[in-house]
Fold:
Amino acid sequence: MPQDKQRRHPTRTISEDWPQVRHWKFDQGSALLALTIAARGATRVMGKDQAEPDHGTKLLRYALIGVLCIALAFIGVFGFRAVASFIFWQDEANQFQPIDGWMSPRYVVRSWQVPPKVVSDALGDRIEGGTPRTSLEEIAEARGVDVEEIIAILEAAIAAHQAKHP
Structure:
């Protein structure tokens, strides 16, 4: 290969110099060529315009960028929620709180760090009143018992579980 071809500065299009790109020493110019090729999808290299992408290609590119932005938004929202939940439950002020009527069974499970089965078995297989966010007061009202009775049942179940699994 002639010496002038090996020392050529990368200013020509990729189709003209592609065989030599592998052998070029990576200096600032060749790194710029590689970045340009990657950024422009090999349609324009170092200011030399080739055919513009058609409308369908542009539309597909915008659609993919939109999908990527939506995915990043979901990752951001759910990542923030996960980190916030982790920080909240690592705070010792939120752990082992005395059971009260405003708490939901799920809150009791997380605060006392017991398996959900312990609380669901103590309250019965089916929790009357509906959702996982139903408070202990609403469960007691649906059963027609006092809240203190529900709290006593939960405290006994949690104490039994902690005695078995210290």
